[in-house]
């Protein structure tokens, strides 16, 4: 099709056009450079204020467990999320927006979770993550509220006849890679002069399947997880959780370091749940309790005339009411997700209120 | 550019705008590319620095000297949870190389057999080989790995039934279970080094003898018996030394322990699944390459060698194969590289290769940029070394051509 | 007068071919038992078939369980199920139960018409594209590579024209596999052309960049590129500039495919005779005209089989997104192994065979098509 080439310029004739084009090209390059510089400046001006960002975008981006850990973060067949970690996400959303549905969930694997938080892909990480020094300092996160006091345990098949973790010398142990569990496992066997064969998996469901198929003698993870995984086995009654708890695993929500406003919002959302249980405020009676004579309760629920608690946190004054309306108090959330109201049937144990022999303790709200 | 150089004829060349100066254009394009690349890198870099600074993360490779703290199931070099991250990476690199090397050897042998089988005049054999190639070529390798790991190896007898088996057959030394394949481990006694040395001497002598035999054949037309002498040198010599030294080799047999078999050697199912999948998957591609290579040698070549009086076997070995190799080697190289790269799928079944262990370190230490940089560096280096070697080999083969 | 002729005027009737040429026995002799080694090989092959095939057919079909509500139909009595002990067979009931999920992931069930419509459009555009006889290939290509992705994007993601918004975490199954590989190929074609031209360019900086990029990406496994896209990409962007996980996987796959496509196209460029370049120069075409109208059309036509092969490779490679916890076909099948409703010893094997069959069907179809194109284009070199 020779007609297409007719536009090939003849020298001289289109000199002006050409100069114009050269000029345009130069302009484009300069514009690109300026653009680059502006974007660079824009980048350096960014501030760590997640609360404002969240308010601006209208939802909380919450990183949760992507491998369906029943009781903590799991999706039902209709795609609805439920669990103790999910309730914290909902509580934060309820506190900020008065609407617990303003959460978007990012399912994360053990490997994805820290880069996801570091890079700002998520606003908060509620993925049964253990609070440890290195994560708090070296990884650049902040933890404060512990939503579940856990500890690492072992699950074995009953037919092995093992009654204690100290009898596991020489066993093959299934464990998920890149977790504190993996490190505790190595330390525990070493300190008790026992040998073991690690069988390491990238994803928790792979480890579940391998244990179920008899690849390992024992399975180790947080005790709460063991109860949840036991339900997935071909025959849950064939398996038992050994009594030893070999580590402290305080599971809590993590946020990026140097953002104390946001850390306040997340941790006080949890404390509100605990405080509500202490005050005896439930999802059902929260409206009634507003009329309570107890000044602590009135202050907590934002009914005291000159209370600035909500405003100081950067939240509406009825933030606690909204949280309780959305997920109930801590006890209700616990029983619904992992306790007697759930298939897991985990006892409150360490997670009972401080005045009932547990560790859950909310600082005074005043 | 040709257009610019084509100005001929008398008088001044027509005045051409600067815009059509190829040199200037080339500079402008290159400058634009450079600016774009530099900007992209700078943009990414500054953002990463900022994001990391915001999260109070340190950067640099210093973390590699910290204690790893986790155990690795298969380590061919000394490693414990007290070793450093760097040591863990070394262990994992060895594991990657081991599975890749085993895979390459098996894939080449299987691929060669299947490729020749597809050209076989035997209808049934060639059909079976075709079925093999068409099945394995068209299924993702990751799926093949899972197939072996979850579908086949997990269904093998459990370790409890092996214990029962040992009770019934106390003399058994070789067990296949869903925990892996247990076999006796050789223990090399004192003086076994001499056997290895004898083997080395045998190999060197065999090479020298072959060279002498070739020279003699060229000089006299008679070929001394090569195969038998070489076999004697390579196998008999070490065996004789072995016997003379009083057989300095014993075996450590696997016996039932409390949970697993104790002693002996075990090949873990993670390794087996990865190794089998990589070998069988790549073999299908190698078979196709071999077939194309052999078919690429014109029919006239084998006809000519028959006319010269060579028998079929000799014609294949001396005439067809050397020419086919020249067609085969370049695509074979890329298949080897693919196999090495595909060994990174180990992470799916928890075989402790470079990517799996790197991933664990990434997760424990949070140094994602550094770990990914290490991955890329190592794999690019392996790829380059393999290509260099195969290029050298290719060049050596190409010398056959005049 | 009697004619004396030495030319034969009557022909002998044709003899029947020897028995060895016509009968089945002869065929067997020639093809299966031509020599002793041949016979031995045949016997080994028959033994292998007899050993493996009947149990395989029995496992896959005869003993298989075809329908049922939960895992009890695929478990033996000792495992707490309904079947006699010692039973082993495929559990198709589980595939049956999960079929929609394997195809569409968690895509809202009342919105399934959207992906189905996209598939219908895709097939309607693809078939005329693949048939050489159908005219208007240019228009077809524009529709398929430019218009279709836009329509598909709007339809699948929603949020416009009253369509409800379906977030990408809900996508899954075969749908994700197809989208990833289609987008990968659609992006890698132009990107690959640019890279290939860059690699053959005379400008040192452009060439160096192209070579570095291509060799770097081709030198590393896809899984590291995917990790880079999923872990590092967010780090390289400004905070809050969040890209969807799905999009990140797409970027990773596209980068990877571009490098491989570039090498395929470079092969085509190198195969074009120098005369074509020179002729284009002689006509006074500038670089882009020369490439667009003379060189690339010929080069790309030459490497269509290579492009299809790259596409097959990509299609298989998308299964790697499983490792960065995305749910493509393989990922969703694997994830379903952990579902307590269907946990049985035969579930993994059944699921993997199903997924393998789907992958095989697509790849085998594409490789047949590639072979067909190769034969069609390769008219001059047949012996």
From TrEMBL, chain A:
Keywords: Signal, Transport. Coiled coil: none annotated. It comes from the Bacteria. The keyword Transport applies. Residues 59-289 form the Solute-binding protein family 3/N-terminal domain. One of its GO terms (biological process) is amino acid transport. SUPFAM superfamilies: Periplasmic binding protein-like II. Signal peptide: none annotated. InterPro entries: Bact_solute-bind_prot3, SBP_3_CS, Solute-binding_3/MltF_N. PROSITE patterns: SBP_BACTERIAL_3. SMART domains: PBPb. Belongs to the bacterial solute-binding protein 3 family. This is General L-amino acid-binding protein. It comes from Mycoplana dimorpha.
UniProtKB/TrEMBL annotation, chain B:
One of its GO terms (biological process) is amino acid transport. This is General L-amino acid ABC transporter membrane protein. Pfam families: BPD_transp_1 (PF00528). The chain crosses the membrane at residues 27-45, 93-119, 139-159, 194-215, 227-246, 266-287, 372-393. Keywords: Amino-acid transport, Cell membrane, Membrane, Transmembrane, Transmembrane helix, Transport. GO terms for cellular component: ATP-binding cassette (ABC) transporter complex. It is found in: Cell inner membrane; Cell membrane. GO terms for molecular function: transmembrane transporter activity. Belongs to the binding-protein-dependent transport system permease family. HisMQ subfamily. Residues 93-390 form the ABC transmembrane type-1 domain. CDD domains: TM_PBP2. It is a multi-pass membrane protein.
Automatic annotation (TrEMBL), chain C:
GO terms for molecular function: transmembrane transporter activity. One of its GO terms (cellular component) is ATP-binding cassette (ABC) transporter complex. Keywords: Cell membrane, Membrane, Transmembrane, Transmembrane helix, Transport. It holds the Pfam family BPD_transp_1. Gene3D superfamilies: MetI-like. It is found in: Cell inner membrane; Cell membrane. Belongs to the binding-protein-dependent transport system permease family. HisMQ subfamily. NCBIfam families: HEQRo_perm_3TM. This is General L-amino acid ABC transporter membrane protein. The lineage of its organism: Bacteria, Pseudomonadati, Pseudomonadota, Alphaproteobacteria, Hyphomicrobiales.
């Amino acid at each position: 099709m020779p007609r297409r080439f007719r536009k090939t310029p003849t020298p001289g004739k289109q000199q002006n056009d050409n100069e114009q084009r050269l000029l345009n090209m130069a302009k484009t390059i300069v514009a690109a450079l300026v653009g680059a510089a502006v974007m660079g400046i824009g980048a350096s001006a960014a501030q760590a204020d997640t609360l404002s960002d969240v308010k601006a975008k209208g939802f909380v981006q919450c990183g949760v467990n992507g491998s369906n850990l029943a009781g903590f973060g799991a999706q039902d067949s209709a795609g609805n999320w439920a669990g103790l970690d999910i309730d914290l996400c909902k509580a934060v959303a309820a506190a900020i927006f008065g609407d617990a549905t303003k959460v978007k969930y990012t399912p994360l694997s053990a490997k994805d979770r820290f880069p996801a938080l570091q890079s700002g892909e998520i606003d908060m990480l509620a993925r049964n993550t253990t609070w440890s020094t290195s994560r708090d300092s070296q990884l650049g996160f902040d933890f404060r509220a512990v939503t579940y006091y856990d500890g690492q345990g072992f699950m074995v098949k009953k037919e092995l006849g093992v009654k204690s973790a100290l009898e596991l010398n020489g066993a093959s142990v299934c464990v998920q890679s890149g977790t504190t569990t993996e490190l505790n496992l190595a330390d525990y066997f070493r300190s008790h002069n026992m040998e073991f064969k690690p069988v390491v998996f990238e994803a928790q469901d792979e480890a579940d399947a391998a244990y179920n198929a008899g690849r390992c003698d024992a399975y180790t993870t947080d005790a709460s997880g063991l109860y949840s995984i036991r339900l997935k086995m071909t025959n849950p009654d064939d398996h038992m959780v050994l009594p030893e708890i070999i580590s402290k695993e305080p599971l809590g929500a993590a946020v990026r370091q140097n953002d104390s406003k946001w850390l306040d919002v997340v941790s006080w959302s949890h404390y509100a749940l605990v405080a509500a249980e202490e005050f005896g405020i439930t999802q059902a009676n929260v409206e009634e309790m507003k009329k309570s004579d107890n000044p602590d309760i009135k202050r907590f629920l934002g009914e005291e005339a000159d209370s600035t608690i909500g405003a100081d946190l950067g939240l509406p004054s009825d933030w606690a009411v909204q949280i309780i309306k959305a997920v109930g108090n801590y006890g209700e959330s616990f029983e619904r997700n992992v306790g007697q109201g759930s298939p897991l049937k985990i006892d409150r144990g360490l997670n009972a209120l401080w005045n009932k022999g547990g560790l859950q303790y909310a600082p005074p709200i005043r | 550019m040709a257009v610019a150089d084509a100005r001929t004829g008398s008088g001044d060349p027509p005045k051409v705008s600067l815009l059509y100066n190829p040199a200037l254009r080339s500079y402008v394009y290159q400058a634009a590319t450079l600016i774009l690349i530099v900007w992209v890198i700078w943009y990414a870099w500054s953002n990463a620095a900022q994001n990391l600074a915001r999260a109070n993360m340190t950067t640099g490779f210093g973390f590699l000297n910290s204690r790893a703290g986790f155990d690795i199931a298969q380590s061919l070099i000394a490693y414990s949870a007290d070793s450093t991250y760097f040591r863990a990476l070394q262990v994992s690199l060895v594991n990657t190389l081991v599975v890749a090397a085993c895979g390459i050897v098996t894939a080449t042998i299987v691929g060669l057999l299947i490729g020749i089988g597809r050209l076989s005049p035997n209808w049934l054999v060639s059909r079976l080989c075709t079925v093999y190639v068409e099945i394995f070529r068209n299924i993702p390798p990751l799926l093949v790995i899972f197939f072996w790991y979850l579908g086949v190896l997990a269904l093998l007898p459990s370790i409890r039934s092996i214990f029962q088996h040992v009770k019934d057959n106390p003399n058994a030394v070789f067990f296949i279970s869903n925990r892996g394949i247990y076999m006796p481990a050789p223990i090399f006694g004192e003086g076994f080094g001499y056997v290895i040395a004898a083997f080395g001497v045998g190999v060197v002598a065999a090479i020298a003898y072959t060279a002498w035999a070739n020279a003699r054949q060229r000089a006299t037309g008679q070929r001394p018996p090569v195969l038998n002498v070489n076999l004697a040198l390579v196998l008999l010599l070490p065996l004789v030394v072995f016997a003379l030294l009083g057989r300095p080799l014993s075996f450590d047999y696997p016996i039932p322990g409390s949970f697993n078999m104790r002693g002996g050697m075990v090949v873990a199912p993670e390794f087996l699944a990865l190794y089998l999948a990589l070998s069988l998957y790549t073999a299908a591609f190698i078979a196709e390459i071999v077939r194309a290579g052999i078919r690429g040698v014109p029919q006239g070549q084998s006809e000519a060698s028959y006319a010269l009086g060579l028998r079929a076997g000799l014609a294949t070995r001396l005439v067809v194969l050397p020419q086919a190799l020249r067609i085969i080697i370049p695509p074979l190289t890329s298949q080897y590289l693919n196999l090495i790269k595909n060994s990174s799928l180990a992470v799916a079944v928890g075989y402790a290769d470079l990517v799996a262990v790197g991933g664990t370190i990434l997760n424990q230490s949070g140094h994602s940029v550094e770990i990914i940089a290490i991955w890329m560096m190592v794999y690019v280096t392996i790829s380059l070394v393999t290509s260099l070697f195969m290029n050298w080999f290719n060049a050596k083969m190409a010398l056959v051509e005049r | 007068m009697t004619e004396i002729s030495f030319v034969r005027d009557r022909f002998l009737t044709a003899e029947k071919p020897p028995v060895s040429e016509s009968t089945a026995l002869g065929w067997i002799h020639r093809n299966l038992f031509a020599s002793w080694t041949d016979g031995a090989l045949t016997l080994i092959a028959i033994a292998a078939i007899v050993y493996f095939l009947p149990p395989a057919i029995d496992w896959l079909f005869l003993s298989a369980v075809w329908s049922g509500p939960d895992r009890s139909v695929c478990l033996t009595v000792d495992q707490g199920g309904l079947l006699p002990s010692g039973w082993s067979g495929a559990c198709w009931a589980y595939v049956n139960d999960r079929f929609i999920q394997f195809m569409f992931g968690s895509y809202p069930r009342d919105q399934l018409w959207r992906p189905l419509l996209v598939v219908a459009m895709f097939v309607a555009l693809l078939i005329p594209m693949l048939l050489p006889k159908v005219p208007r290939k240019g228009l077809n290509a524009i529709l398929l590579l430019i218009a279709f992705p836009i329509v598909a994007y709007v339809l699948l993601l929603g949020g416009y024209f009253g369509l409800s918004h379906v977030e990408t975490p809900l996508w899954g199954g075969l749908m994700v596999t197809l989208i990833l590989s289609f987008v990968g190929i659609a992006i890698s074609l132009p990107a690959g052309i640019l890279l290939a031209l860059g690699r053959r360019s005379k400008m040192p900086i452009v060439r160096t960049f192209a070579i570095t990029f291509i060799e770097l990406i081709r030198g590393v496994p896809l899984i590291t590129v995917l990790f880079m896209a999923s872990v590092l990409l967010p780090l390289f962007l400004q905070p809050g500039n969040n890209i969807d996980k799905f999009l990140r996987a797409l970027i990773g796959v596209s980068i990877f495919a571009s490098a491989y496509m570039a090498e395929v196209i470079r092969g085509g460029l190198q195969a074009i005779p120098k005369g074509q370049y020179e002729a284009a120069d002689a006509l006074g075409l500038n670089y882009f005209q020369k490439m667009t109208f003379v060189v690339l059309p010929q080069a790309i036509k030459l490497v269509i089989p290579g492009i299809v092969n790259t596409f097959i490779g990509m299609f298989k490679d998308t299964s790697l997104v499983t490792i960065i916890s995305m749910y493509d076909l393989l990922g969703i099948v694997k994830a379903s192994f952990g579902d307590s409703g269907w946990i049985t010893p035969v579930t993994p094997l059944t699921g993997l065979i199903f997924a393998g069959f789907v992958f095989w069907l697509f790849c085998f179809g594409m490789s047949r098509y590639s072979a067909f194109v190769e034969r069609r284009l390769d008219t001059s070199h047949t012996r």
